[in-house]
Amino acid sequence: EHPVDAAHAATDEASLALANAKRALRRRILRRQLLGHDALFGEPAWDMLIDLFIHQGEGKPVSTSSICIASGVPITTALRLLQRLCEVGLLIRAADPDDGRRNLVRIAPNVAHRLTAFFAAGDE
């Protein structure tokens, strides 16, 4: 395969994955709005991963507070969950180089590739 073709295919896969992740997030939000019952249907870790995947795909940094809000659970619960996700190597938290008062969160590179493959394969 020609290098230009491979780069184009990777870009297409990333674009498809981003579009599918956005659709999955919209459907999760709609499900929550229509059915409620976060205790029954809530998956805060997955909500965090989807939100981070979308923001990283758009080149936008995500702060600790922002990802906690995306989880849909109380902040103390979200912070504990974020810590666990970092401990197992799914997420990486580091100081914001532009603002030392906050931390940024990103998906570990090996996990980002797997999420791209997951979302490129179709909707959630």
Shape: globular
What structural class do the secondary elements suggest? alpha+beta
Strand percentage lies at: 5-15%
Report, as a whole number of angstroms, the end-to-end distance.
30 Å
What gyration radius follows from the Cα positions, in whole Å?
15 Å
Could you give a short account of the major beta sheet? 3 strands, antiparallel
Strand order of the largest sheet: 1-3-2
DSSP, total strands: 3
Order of helices and strands: HHHEHHEEH
Number of helices: 6
Average pLDDT value?
86
Poorly predicted runs: none
User: Helical residue percent?
Assistant: 55-70%
Annotation keywords:
single chain, 124 residues, 3-stranded antiparallel beta sheet
